């Protein structure tokens, strides 16, 4: 039924069924993978070149239509999503040309294609070009209505069979616009050696002014629309608001992003059929969720995974033989409602991922293992490791075990889902699983044991018995502890009570740079001096690594050296803003 | 092995099995016997020795139908077991029966301790003396236990039941357990496809109440390798009918309950964190969902025909654990059923044709005074038939 709606809707926008099956695209009006210079639905269907598209550009004399920057994402060996949005009052069905080159001068163009900015998809444009080489940095720019966009930089992943010695990823989450300046995005933008940026969700926040912001910052950075977002138009406007931020634009312009949503892309503490921050006055939750999901697919540089499942974002990436990356949705595709007691958290009928996603994840772990990948990364939202006021032995046969959990929105609230995942890693004897987590606005390094409070299962001193590790990335702007002192106090209390927890910082905003080699998977935490004002100051806070086969974290004193001779950053925006005509 | 095989065939001919079944039975001998006493599951395998055809043997005929009886939790050696056996013999004679499936707890209360343990006679050979049929057996918790509680912490003990399959000294040739977990093909559906393939799971190491200290039986060394083997074997199977047998229920309204929440009232006494069957549930679903037509288990001492559930796909789920002991239900509403019967001895008789399955439940009076048909229904084959077969 949904599928039929989808086809009707898509046909109405002029896409043929053949195109649909070829590009796996959806309502977001993506261009097909191969350059197709015939505008779909244009009966004349003649002409065969990008030039003819240029010739038939609608007349336009307004300001620069590239108001929301450009972006790339979901890199594969031969593909990467290229994204932009066109702002041109009064126009619709606007052709947008993209060129991809090996160089910043666009002398060596490897791809040219066309997409269309349509009102149905909020004038966003996504193109999924076929590119010639894996593991390669490309530069791209869009062109429409006589204007060029800035030049973007992106990178394909190494081919799955390729041997790779070194990967670098930034890991980010929780970027609340009115809570601070996006200094973290700016710092990451300048790291030229990154292969990709992972954003683990809470990319936008749904709140209205004054509900969850820093008043001093919000005065300078007011959100639009000026109320809690509920409708499709609201969600679109909120993305548009965030995407006018220069730091965020710059980060997108320099790196391909791999994103998953958390709750705030929909609304706080969302689950499959509801959310903490949703009430009947705000209408049907299903409708709100569909609106949020639709805007997400319009505005984020994400590739639709399954043509007939508009809510599915769990998907995987392969970075050569060095690493597989599985991105999960712990939020809305399968999550049962949050509970508030340990007993309920153990209900075997409750799920965090939902059966299909869990099956998929187990298959992917099998696949990653059998294809010989060294590291199995799982990018997801909420903390897997238990967080309690005193971790006790936790046999599932005693429903009191484990201690008093602090946050039932995390995997702590979905005990059987956690046991299923860790139990599978244990049963397979799978080494080198690394979980990357956001959501909690703070920095954590942890061993993942199936029963960390049980000395016969896990040795808190050596880490023996740990099955995997978890690194939690701090927020770009959202706060945790209000002061450094409180943060230190809380950390002092939490670490001894949670033997698998090796480090926590609840105060600083920042990000992780993940440094991956065949020998180690290492998280370098970088913390910002402030997000209350624009600032360039950051410090290296800590590093924890897990070495090949160790499955436990170890503290290191220095950050990893960047890659030598990284690909050039895309040149600054000012150089390319002249109009094309 | 060919020696055994011939003996096996002779044995069957004397019995009531039909010739087409024998010739198509393929795996009869159950593989190479190597490592038959190894702790590590004998690599699963049912050794489908589909090798050379004996001279003079006629070409296998296409199987029209197969009938079999399913029993579980039978090995008490008491009057109840004898009464069920007598009823099975009568039903087999009237309705036909090509083989028997034994869903575990073959020998109460704590299995056997050697291949010549007299309990093979007391709990198997003597009670089923008048049933000259192959019995395909599955290990239960009591077969792998060293106490009468059936805690299942002595998995090694189950290996003697595999050894008995290969013993030349055994009392009869009925006992079939070529490995702790195995597959077995039956009949011929044409186009080089077996009519039926049976997959037998060794569930005790996956769910035992108490932890087995023998590291050969951890999930890492045993459970997951078994799962990988089973998943691949089922996926590769070209058999027309696929049926799975395991001891511990996937779904049950009895006191042991559903996998994922097994023994909810008893677990506080258990030491094995896998005693709730969370990983076992995933095992069963990953191996059999949307592939198996029927799933037989025992463990709860009742008779239940449970309706298909979404996670397992179209498979019908049958608990037959009342061939030696009886018990009442814990929650008769836990899973929707087609039929269920508590507090009665009994067994299940099944007849499969190309397109249909006829399933009958028989209850048996403990004193041997008789048996009766409690329920019978014929349904279409649950997993859709591939058109190529027609």
From TrEMBL, chain A:
Residues 68-156 form the Phospholipase D N-terminal domain. Residues 31-56, 557-581 are annotated as: Disordered. It comes from the Bacteria. It holds the Pfam family PhoD. Transmembrane segments: none annotated. Residues 169-525 form the PhoD-like phosphatase metallophosphatase domain. Residues 31-51 have a biased composition (Low complexity). One of its GO terms (molecular function) is acyltransferase activity, transferring groups other than amino-acyl groups. InterPro entries: Metallo-depent_PP-like, PhoD-like_MPP, PhoD-like_sf, PhoD_N, Phospholipid_Metab_Enz, Thiolase_AS. This is Alkaline phosphatase D. It comes from Marinobacter zhejiangensis.
UniProtKB/TrEMBL annotation, chain B:
The keyword Signal applies. It comes from Marinobacter zhejiangensis. Pfam families: Metallophos (PF00149). The lineage of its organism: Bacteria, Pseudomonadati, Pseudomonadota, Gammaproteobacteria, Pseudomonadales. Residues 67-302 form the Calcineurin-like phosphoesterase domain. This is Calcineurin-like phosphoesterase. Keywords: Hydrolase, Signal. The keyword Glycoprotein does not apply. It comes from the Bacteria. Residues 33-59 are annotated as: Disordered. Residues 33-49 have a biased composition (Gly residues). GO terms for molecular function: hydrolase activity.
């Amino acid at each position: 039924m949904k599928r039929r709606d989808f086809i009707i809707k898509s046909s109405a926008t002029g896409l043929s069924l053949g195109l649909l099956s070829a590009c796996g695209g959806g309502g977001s009006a993506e261009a097909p993978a191969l350059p197709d210079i015939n505008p779909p639905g244009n009966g004349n269907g003649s002409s065969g070149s990008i030039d003819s598209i240029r010739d038939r550009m609608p007349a336009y004399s307004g300001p620069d239509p590239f108001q929301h920057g450009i972006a790339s994402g979901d890199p594969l060996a031969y593909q990467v999503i290229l994204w932009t949005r066109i702002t041109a009052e009064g126009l619709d069905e606007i052709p947008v040309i993209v060129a991809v080159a090996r160089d910043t001068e666009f002398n060596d163009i490897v791809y040219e294609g066309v997409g269309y900015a349509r009102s149905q998809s909020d004038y966003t444009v996504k193109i999924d070009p076929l590119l010639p080489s894996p593991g390669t940095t490309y530069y791209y720019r869009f062109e429409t209505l006589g204007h060029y966009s800035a030049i973007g930089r992106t990178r394909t992943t190494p081919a799955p069979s390729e041997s790779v010695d070194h990967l670098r990823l930034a890991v980010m989450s929780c970027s609340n616009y009115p809570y601070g300046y996006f200094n973290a995005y700016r710092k990451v933008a300048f790291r030229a050696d990154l292969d990709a940026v992972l954003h683990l969700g809470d990319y936008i926040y749904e709140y209205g002014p004054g509900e969850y912001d820093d008043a001093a910052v919000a005065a300078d950075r007011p959100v639009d629309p000026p109320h809690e977002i509920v409708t499709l138009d609201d969600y679109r406007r909120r993305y548009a608001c965030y995407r006018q931020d220069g730091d965020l634009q710059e980060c997108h312009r320099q790196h391909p992003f791999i994103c998953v949503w958390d709750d705030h892309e929909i609304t706080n503490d969302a689950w499959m059929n509801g959310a903490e921050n949703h009430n009947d006055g705000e209408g049907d939750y299903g409708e709100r969720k569909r609106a949020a999901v639709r805007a997400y697919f319009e505005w984020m540089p994400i590739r639709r995974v399954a043509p007939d499942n508009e809510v599915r974002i769990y998907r995987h990436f392969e970075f050569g033989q060095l690493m597989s990356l599985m991105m999960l949705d712990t939020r809305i595709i399968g999550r049962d409602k949050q509970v508030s007691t340990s007993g309920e958290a153990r209900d075997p009928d409750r799920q965090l991922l939902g059966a299909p996603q869990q099956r998929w994840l187990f298959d992917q772990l099998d696949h990653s293992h059998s294809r010989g990948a060294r590291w199995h990364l799982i990018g997801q939202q909420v903390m897997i490791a238990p967080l309690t006021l005193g971790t006790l032995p936790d046999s599932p046969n005693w429903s009191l075990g484990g201690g008093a959990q602090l946050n039932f929105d995390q995997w702590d609230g979905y005990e059987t889902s956690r046991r299923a995942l860790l139990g599978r890693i244990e049963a397979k004897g799978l080494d080198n699983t690394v979980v990357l987590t956001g959501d909690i606005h703070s920095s954590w390094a942890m061993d993942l044991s199936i029963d960390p409070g049980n000395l016969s299962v896990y040795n808190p001193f050596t880490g023996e018995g740990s099955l995997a590790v978890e690194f939690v990335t701090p927020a770009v702007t959202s706060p945790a502890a209000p002061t450094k002192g409180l943060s230190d106090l809380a950390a002092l209390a939490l670490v001894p009570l949670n033997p698998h927890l090796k480090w926590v910082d609840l105060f600083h905003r920042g990000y992780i740079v993940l440094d991956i080699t065949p020998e180690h998977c290492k998280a370098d935490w970088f913390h910002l001096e402030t997000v209350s004002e624009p600032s360039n100051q950051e410090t290296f806070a800590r590093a924890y690594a897990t070495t090949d086969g160790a499955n436990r974290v170890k503290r290191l004193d220095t950050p990893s050296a960047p890659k030598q001779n990284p690909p050039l950053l895309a040149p600054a925006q000012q150089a390319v803003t002249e109009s094309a005509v | 092995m060919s020696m055994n095989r011939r003996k096996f065939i002779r044995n069957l001919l004397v019995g009531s099995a039909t010739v087409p079944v024998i010739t198509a039975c393929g795996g009869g001998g159950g593989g190479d016997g190597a490592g038959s006493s190894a702790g590590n599951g004998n690599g699963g395998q049912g050794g489908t020795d589909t090798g050379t055809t004996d001279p003079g043997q006629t070409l296998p005929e296409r199987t029209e139908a197969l009938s079999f009886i399913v029993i579980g939790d039978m090995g008490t050696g008491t009057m109840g077991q004898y009464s069920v056996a007598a009823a099975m013999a009568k039903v087999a004679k009237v309705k036909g029966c090509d083989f028997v499936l034994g869903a575990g707890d073959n020998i109460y209360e704590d299995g056997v301790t050697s291949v010549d343990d007299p309990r093979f006679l007391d709990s198997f050979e003597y009670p089923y003396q008048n049933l000259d049929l192959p019995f395909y057996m599955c290990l239960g918790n009591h077969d792998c236990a060293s106490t009468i509680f059936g805690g299942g912490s002595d998995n090694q003990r189950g290996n003697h039941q595999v050894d008995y399959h290969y013993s030349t000294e055994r009392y009869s040739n009925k006992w079939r357990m070529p490995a702790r977990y195995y597959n077995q093909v039956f009949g011929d559906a044409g186009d080089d496809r077996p009519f039926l393939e049976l997959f037998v799971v060794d569930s005790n190491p996956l769910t035992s109440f108490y932890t087995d200290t023998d590291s050969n039986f951890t999930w890492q060394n045993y459970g997951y390798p078994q799962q990988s083997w089973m998943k691949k074997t089922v996926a590769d199977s070209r058999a027309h009918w696929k049926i799975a047998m395991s001891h511990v229920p996937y779904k049950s309204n009895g006191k042991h309950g559903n996998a994922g929440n097994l023994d909810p009232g008893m677990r506080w006494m258990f030491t094995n964190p896998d005693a709730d069957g969370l990983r076992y549930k995933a095992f069963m679903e990953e191996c059999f969902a949307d592939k198996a037509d029927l799933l037989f288990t025992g463990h709860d001492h009742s008779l239940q025909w449970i309706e298909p559930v979404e996670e397992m796909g179209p498979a019908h789920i049958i608990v037959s654990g009342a061939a030696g002991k009886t018990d009442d239900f814990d929650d008769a509403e836990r899973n929707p059923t087609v039929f269920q019967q508590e507090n009665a001895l009994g067994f299940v008789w099944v007849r499969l044709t190309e397109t249909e399955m006829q399933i009958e439940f028989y209850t048996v009076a403990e004193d041997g005074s008789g048996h009766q048909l409690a329920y019978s229904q014929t349904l279409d084959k649950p997993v859709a038939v591939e058109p190529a077969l027609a």
